[in-house]
Structures are given as C-alpha cells and as structure tokens.
Amino acid sequence: MIKTAYQQELKFAGTCQKGNKGKAVKQIQEWLNLSVPRFPNATLATTVDSDYGSATEKAVKNFQKAAGLPVTGIVTEEVFTVLSSPLKKAFTIPAKQPDFRKQVLQIAQNHLTLKAIELQADDAQNLGPWVRSYCDGFDGSPFKWCMGFVQSVLDIASTAHGKSFTSLMPQTLSCDVVAMAGKQKGVLIDNAAVRKAPEKVKAGDVFLIRMAATSDWFHTGIITDIDGDVFETLEGNTDVKGSSNGTGVFARVRNFRKGVIDVFSIDGLSA
Fold it and tell me: Gene3D superfamilies, alphabetically (predicted)?
C-alpha cells in the first residue's frame, strides 16, 4: 500500500481515563463522535478538547454499554480497538477477486457502509481520522478529501492485485493534477465524448466534475453504474446536496448531460 496514513490512526497511545489530557484523549473524543452513526441510540457526542473530563467519561461509558463492553469509563486497548474498528476494516487489503472493477466497487461500498465521515469544529472542517487517512496525514479546512478517498480505494484494490495505482495516475489530492495526467495519457474521456458515447464509460471509472469551458476540476468520485443519462456514484467529501466540500462518503446519482463531468478510465489497472 502507498496510502498508509491510516496506520497512525489505529495506534493505541495508552490507557486513558478521567483526569488525563493530551493527544491520546483527543483521539478518543474524535472516535466517540465518529461512532454516533454506528450507535444512534447511544449518547456519544462530546467536545473534542483533549481533556478527559466527566463528559468524556460518560460518553465512554455509553459507548462501552452500546458495544457490549464492560462499563468502566476507562479506554483500554480493547476499547480503542472497537472504537477504531471501522477504519481498520475499511483499509484492510481484501482477497484478490478476478474482476478488478468489481473489487473497486466493493471497497468503495465498504467505506460507505462503515460510515466514513469527517468531523467539524467552529473554525474548521475536513477533520478527523478518516480525513487524515485519505489525505496522507493531513486534515483541516484546506484539505478537500474527495480525491484522497478515490485514490485510497484504488490503492487498496491495486494492492490486492499486486499493482500500484500510481502506474496510472500520480498520488495527489488534486482533481486538476489527476485530470491533466489523464489527458496526457489519453485516458480522460471529456464530457462531450461521454454525452456522445456513454458506453465508453465503465463501472469503476473515476468521474471528475469540471467548471464549464475551463480546465478547473473540483470534485471526483467513483462511478458505480451507468443508466441512460446518469451515473450512479460513490464519492467522498460530499453530502445529500451534492456539495464538493461536504461531510462524508455518499452514494449519489449525477446527470452527465446537465453537468460537465469528465471520466478518467481505469482500464490501465483493470487489464
């Protein structure tokens, strides 16, 4: 694997309990907040302030109860492993499947199912373990992570097949860089060609949304199906409105005749 930043998010920094402060506590608070969608009936959301106070202790107890763990209010390695287990599952290299494209789709779907989302603070967004894993250790408002999601999925699938996704595209968080590389390699299908011959597009290919009449690509994701005038997609850093700077991994439907959507073919990896 090339994108290995996720490994840092899975490292256990030591047992934490009420009264502790610091980076390890912040990590626990992040995972408590990220666990809210997993356990919607448990009260887990708490302030991320690196201070293991009464609120964090209560949230930990609630998580332990919801996860079927002993309710102690103390985060041991066992508790942390359960807290961070979705990320570990998402980045685990699967057994190789004969169909590379199908494997890409299953890995992307896995990230959706495991509820890959970002955290936000009063003065920043694009925060947390999932974002840092996608963005090579970085997070914060400047780090739009849609390309990081796409390349993480391709990296996991390529590794399972003994390949490297960088043989097809450069490792980057920039949609522009990937699109320009696709043009140079002759694997970028522009929107005009997509509209004329949608059959050129295959499930597993990467879409890139472009500003009309410019070379400014600003959002990306993975195409899961082509039906008539629309792509079904799995994409990171979006939301139910289709934003290019949203909150999580979502499945969407996008009309390629109403927007300027180019396609980066992954034939070079699937062959």
Answer: PGBD-like superfamily/PGBD
End-to-end CA distance of the chain: give it in Å, rounded: 19
Closest CA to 79 of 62, 89, 64, 58: 64
The answer to whether 27 and 40 have CB atoms below 8 angstroms apart is: no
Report the alpha-carbon distance of residue 217 to residue 257 in Å, rounded: 17
Token look-up 């955290």 returns 119
Q: What is the CATH number that goes with domain 6-85?
A: 1.10.101.10
C-alpha span between 170 and 178 (Å, rounded):
7
- Tokens of residue 54, six digits: 């009464």
What is the number of other CB atoms lying within 10 angstroms of the CB of residue 217?
Answer: 25
Q: What's the confidence (pLDDT) of residue 271?
A: 81
Q: Which amino acid is at 19?
A: G
Q: Which pLDDT does position 59 carry in this prediction? A: 98
Please give the single-letter amino acid code of residue 11: K
By the 8 A CB rule, do 139 and 237 touch?
no
CA atoms within 13 A on the CB side of 254: 31
Residue 66 CB-half CA count within 13 A:
19
Q: What letter does residue 239 receive in the DSSP assignment?
A: -
Residue 43 has a pLDDT of: 98
Domain chopping of the chain, boundaries: 6-85, 93-270
Cβ-in-10-Å burial (0-12, 13-18, 19+) of 205 comes to buried
Q: What is the DSSP string of 69-120?
A: ----S-B-HHHHHHHTHHHHHHHSPPPP-S-HHHHHHHHHHHHHHTT-B-EE
pTM for the model: 0.97
Give me the helix-helix angle, 54-66 and 23-34, nearest 10°: 50
Q: Which residues of the chain have pLDDT under 70?
A: none
Percent of the chain with pLDDT over 90: 97
